[in-house]
């Protein structure tokens, strides 16, 4: 009897002896606690940043008693991280596609210069100058996406090049001149609106609500813009087809293309949207400093990447969340503020942030290695 006939006979005997209605089962070795922990962290990557944030709050509440937990101090932290959090949202979109954008900071600065200089120096109505700034950010992001997709160049190299190009355009258009707060207030006060201070307790008190825990909090409208931007992008990523395409393109672009996803169009949309968000950050930046400076936000590129990485978004793409980025920005703000209140120099604040980055990336690779 041939080998094929022998195999067929054995298969028929196996089917005949099988129990009716039986279900195939596979041996599953008992997983240890470390393995289960890794799978949980892989499934809920935002849990790590939340734990780190909680630990930081507890540590600094003892290291700087009476100061760190003050409502005004928490308000200050929130205001300090607002711009970085908005840029972090833009950077999250890019990193989810397994890319990186080194130009987000300079796009923000260029958009702020377009808004402010067009309105104040050239006397263009703010109703036109403001959309022009948003359009400038959108165009910069679109150029990044177009080069990445059409020339098939690594996003790191592309955005490194456009970082220099957009920076040169910023110097050319601004003429390296700043716009004073008084001039901005006279010609385009709307651009300063995001810096307007308000007290949440007084706001709710006028509505007849006495929320005592809000006493001492002082916020600005830029923080509200940050939350709105984060909420919109969270919805886009989690509730729309475009969001699913973003995750799929970052996780496995070849499989995404086989599934019918136009990955090039998705990437161009991601970079353009990121540029638009950077322009919104420019509006918040103007409100923060009161005027326009072509030198503002020089470290914003690296700060945004820091917030995203510490927030649990994988540098390899396909995994991460907007909530994690917001928490990551808060972690940076909490550690810098707490160390400053504890009396440590700026040197050690940078040291602590650097350690956080290395630890975050190490944990990410550990989770990916075990869960793959």
Automatic annotation (TrEMBL):
InterPro entries: ABC_transp_permease (IPR001851). It is found in: Cell membrane. Keywords: Cell membrane, Membrane, Transmembrane, Transmembrane helix. Signal peptide: none annotated. It holds the Pfam family BPD_transp_2. This is ABC transporter permease. It is a multi-pass membrane protein. It comes from the Bacteria. The keyword Kinase does not apply. The chain crosses the membrane at residues 44-64, 76-96, 103-122, 128-148, 155-173, 217-237, 267-286, 306-335, 347-367.
């Amino acid at each position: 009897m041939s080998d094929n006939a022998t195999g067929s006979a054995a298969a028929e005997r196996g089917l005949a002896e099988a129990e009716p209605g039986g279900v195939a089962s596979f041996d599953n070795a008992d997983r240890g606690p470390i393995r289960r922990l890794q799978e949980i962290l892989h499934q809920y990557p935002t849990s790590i940043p939340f734990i780190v944030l909680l630990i930081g709050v507890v540590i600094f509440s003892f290291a700087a008693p009476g100061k760190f937990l003050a409502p005004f101090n928490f308000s200050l932290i929130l205001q300090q991280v607002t711009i970085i959090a908005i840029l972090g949202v833009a950077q999250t979109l890019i990193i989810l596609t397994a890319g990186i954008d080194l130009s987000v900071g300079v796009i923000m600065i260029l958009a702020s210069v377009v808004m402010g200089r067009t309105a104040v120096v050239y006397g263009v109505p703010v109703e036109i100058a403001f959309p022009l700034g948003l359009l400038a950010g959108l165009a910069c992001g679109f150029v990044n996406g177009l080069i990445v997709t059409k020339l098939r160049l690594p996003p790191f190299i592309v955005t490194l090049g456009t970082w220099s190009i957009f920076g040169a355009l910023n110097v050319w258009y601004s003429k390296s001149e700043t716009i004073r707060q008084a001039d901005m207030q006279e010609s385009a006060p709307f651009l300063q609106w995001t810096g307007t201070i308000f007290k949440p307790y007084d706001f709710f008190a006028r509505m007849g609500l006495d929320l005592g825990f809000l006493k001492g909090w002082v916020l600005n409208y830029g923080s509200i813009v940050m939350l709105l931007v984060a909420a919109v992008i969270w919805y886009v990523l989690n509730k729309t087809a475009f969001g699913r395409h973003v995750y799929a393109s970052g996780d496995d672009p070849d499989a995404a293309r086989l599934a019918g996803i136009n990955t090039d169009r998705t990437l161009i949309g991601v970079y353009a949207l990121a540029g638009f968000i950077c322009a919104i950050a420019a509006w918040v930046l103007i409100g923060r400093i009161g005027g326009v400076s072509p030198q503002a936000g020089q470290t914003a590129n690296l700060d945004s990447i820091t917030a995203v990485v510490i927030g649990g978004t994988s540098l390899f793409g396909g995994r991460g969340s907007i909530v994690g980025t917001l928490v990551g920005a808060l972690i940076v703000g909490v550690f810098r503020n707490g160390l400053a209140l504890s009396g440590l120099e700026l040197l050690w604040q940078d040291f602590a942030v650097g350690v956080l980055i290395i630890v975050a990336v190490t944990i990410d690779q550990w989770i990916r290695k075990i869960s793959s």
